[in-house]
Amino acid sequence: MSEEVRTFIAVEIKNTDVLRKLIEIRDYLLTSNAELKPVEDENIHLTLRFIGEIPVSLVRVICTEISNLKVEKFQIHVKGIGAFPSPLRPRVVWAGVEEGADKLKELHSLIEEKLRRLGIPREREEFVP
User: pTM for the whole thing?
Assistant: First the structure.
């Protein structure tokens, strides 16, 4: 039996000002007694697609396919925060994307097409940056 890993595709946040602000928000929420599992500073990211548990061998194929995508660099502007499933019972904290949302949607669509060709079904929910 092949080993499986929890898998998602994400964008690393390289802007130190944005990252610092997200870390401040995370740290504040941790003092509020919310039942959050904190993400380490270096693992804060923008999720493009959650895949779930898949074989390691498929992760390698996905990485190769995604790395072959031709996408120009673009800027995003982060504005607003929220939580899933609700702000009163947060499990995941998110930051909204204002500028660059259209580019993220295009990138998400390219990724969905690659995943579909590899036999991974499309997400049921609409992608909202």
Answer: 0.83
